[in-house]
Design a protein that fits this description.
CATH class of one domain in chain B: Alpha Beta
Helix content of chain B: 25-40%
Oligomer: heterodimer
Shape of chain B: globular
Strand content of chain A: under 5%
Radius of gyration of chain A: 23 Å
CATH superfamily of one domain in chain B: Amidase signature (AS) domain
Number of strands of chain A: 0
Distance between the termini of chain A: 49 Å
Shape of chain A: flat
Helix content of chain A: 25-40%
Number of helices of chain A: 3
Structural class of chain B: alpha/beta
Largest interface: A-B, 50 and 69 residues
CATH topology of one domain in chain B: Amidase signature (AS) enzymes
């Protein structure tokens, strides 16, 4: 039996904000199932007393002075926006208004 | 006389200093070379002819005025598509970023420019650096200059192919699980992944932030050292860059390995290793022995778990990093969204290619409620064990020697049908990233099919000097000269 069902794939896609067609869902059930099965080999290891490696380097906090630096000019920051009005990023409607 | 485009960076710097050539001549030689052979190789995604020539003129002017810009004066190089540059585009070989123009230069780009390097343009890669063959690029297919039917490796396939085809002196790539070293091996170049934290990641579009590292792909070890000298060091823009003294890596290239202890991990030399690769590695071992190095067997007992750990951690980090591409501030926006939720979903679904979506899905799954402990936390624990394996091994030896890739360059399509098989092509390189240590791949001969093979040297954290020294000594004494890739 596969590790993962079509319903699982649909649920994960919704978390990931992806829209998958039928064919992609079928494919991912198979591929993710196979990859997750492979990953299950980790269960053969007892890791009860092992600390997780949370960071690549052992580093304590890196501090700097909290001073105002130079930031991007607004026009530069907006340059790549698909839609803007020279002041703000523009997106489609966020809140649906039932009374509208 | 060999053409300028066949020379190394250090040869070009020396020639310019002696006044044997102008920067303009050298740069033009590369641009002509790109025009002649890149249509077959397709390494470049952008060629910056005009700005490269302008840069070269400025270098010549500075030299005429008696100023030396820096250690890379007049050296023409190429940049991987995921390094942020205010010139041109930074596409990550993705439809998502096909029109993205970075508002700032990455730290490595700034440092290279200051050192006098000339940017010839940008080179192809697997989309968002996810892949081992560059077949996941949304822009084009890059071919291996040694055999145009074969892939150049990946994800820095364009970086490796451009160096192998003499279309730049060296290039920068990035390495998350082998993405510098594996294509370097498959294309017959030197590829260096520095220790995590050695090089600032500011301006490197993130794939997996605890694994990513920028490094050079070059024609020889000296150029790798030269490039590392320029790009490394603490950077206030990257809190994970290490505040450690930076040696002059070129000074490490003494040509000697006498007394060096080299470890051979028994888990890498099993029956699974292709006999031809084994033979080439054994010949390399003899070269090191003849130079006075000694070998011991070491053990990295958790090696067999590395691929599983890697694909849990890298997909988890990728799913978080790539969430920013929502069609609002930059990147692809789907035109048909009627509300903001649809905007996110449609933009991501159309903007990302299949492999990127597969990894976002896997990463989201392993981080999701109910699976976090079983996958992500478990993987982080096993990552600790893998790191300890290296600590234990390095208590007994100075460097570790392994093959770089389990196979030579493969044909297009050979592994695309089975993602897991493609993932296993990183088997010898990914532990390095998990352990955050440095690694270098150096050419160690040609296979019967006339394709390059590479050997890998791994070092202690922040001890790039020792692996560079070993690699350089091998390069100088192996008697191996792959010659030039057989393209026109």
């Amino acid at each position: 039996m596969s590790k993962i069902t079509k319903e699982d794939v649909a649920y994960v896609a919704s978390l990931a904000q992806l829209e998958l067609d039928e064919a992609a869902q079928e494919r991912l059930v198979h591929e993710m199932g196979e990859i997750l099965n492979y990953m299950d080999k980790l269960n053969a290891l007892n890791t009860d007393n092992v600390e997780p490696m949370m960071h690549a380097l052992e580093m304590s906090n890196v501090f700097r002075e909290d001073v105002v630096g130079k930031s991007l000019p607004r026009a530069t920051a907006l340059k790549n926006a698909p839609q803007h009005d020279d002041e703000y990023f523009i997106v489609p409607k966020i809140l649906e208004n039932d009374n509208a | 006389m060999t053409a300028w485009y066949q020379k190394t960076a250090h040869e070009i710097v020396d020639a310019l200093m002696r006044g044997d050539a102008t920067s303009l001549e050298v740069t033009q030689s590369y641009l002509d070379r790109i025009a002649a052979v890149d249509p077959q190789v397709d390494a470049y995604t952008q060629v910056w002819q005009d700005s490269a020539l302008t840069q070269a003129e400025q270098i010549d002017q500075q030299l005429a005025d008696g100023n030396i810009p820096g250690p890379l004066t007049g050296v023409p190089i190429a940049l991987k598509e995921l390094l942020c540059t205010t010139d041109g585009y930074t596409t990550c070989a993705s439809r998502m970023l096909e029109n993205f123009q970075s508002p700032y230069n990455g730290t490595v780009v700034r440092k290279l420019a200051k050192a006098g390097a000339i940017f010839l343009g940008k080179v192809n890669m697997d989309e968002f650096a996810m892949g081992s063959s560059t077949e996941n690029s949304a822009i084009k297919k890059t071919r291996n200059p040694w055999n145009l039917r074969c892939v150049p490796g990946g994800s820095s396939g364009g970086s490796a192919a451009s160096v192998a085809a003499d279309c730049c002196t060296f290039s920068l790539g990035s390495d998350t699980g082998g993405s510098i070293r594996q294509p370097a091996a498959l294309c017959g170049c030197v590829g260096l992944k520095p220790t995590y934290g050695r090089v600032s990641r500011y301006g490197l579009v993130a794939f997996a932030s605890s694994l990513d590292q920028i490094g050079p792909l070059s024609k020889d070890v000296e150029d790798a050292a030269l490039a590392l000298n320029v790009i490394c060091g603490k950077d206030v823009m990257d809190a994970t860059s290490a505040d450690l003294p930076v040696p002059d890596f070129r000074k490490a290239l003494t040509g000697e390995v006498k007394g060096m202890k080299i470890g051979l991990p028994r888990e890498y030399f099993t029956d699974a290793l292709n006999p031809e690769m084994r033979e080439l590695i054994e010949k390399a071992i003899d070269v090191f022995k003849a130079q006075g190095a000694s070998f011991i067997e070491v053990s990295l007992p958790h090696t067999e778990y590395a691929v599983a750990v890697y694909y849990i951690i890298c997909t988890a980090e990728a799913s978080a990093n790539l969430a920013r591409f929502d069609g609002v501030r930059y990147g692809f926006r789907h035109p048909d969204a009627s509300n903001v939720q649809e905007l996110y979903v449609k933009s991501k679904s159309e903007g990302f290619g299949p492999e990127v979506q597969r990894r976002i899905m896997l990463g989201t799954y392993v981080l999701s409620s109910g699976y976090y402990d079983a996958y992500y936390l478990k993987a982080q624990k096993v990552r600790s064990l893998i790191k300890s394996d290296f600590d234990n091994a390095f208590a007994q030896c100075d460097v570790i020697l392994t093959p770089t890739s389990p196979t030579q360059a493969f044909e297009f399509g050979a592994k695309t049908a089975d993602p897991l098989e493609m993932y296993l092509s990183d088997i010898y390189t990914i532990s390095t990233n998990l352990a955050a240590i440095p690694g270098i791949s150096v050419p160690c001969g040609l296979t019967k099919d006339g394709l390059p093979a590479g050997l890998q040297l791994l070092g202690k954290p922040f001890d790039e000097a020792t692996i560079l020294r070993a690699a350089h000594c091998y390069e100088q004494n192996s008697g191996i000269d792959l010659g030039k890739a057989p393209i026109a």
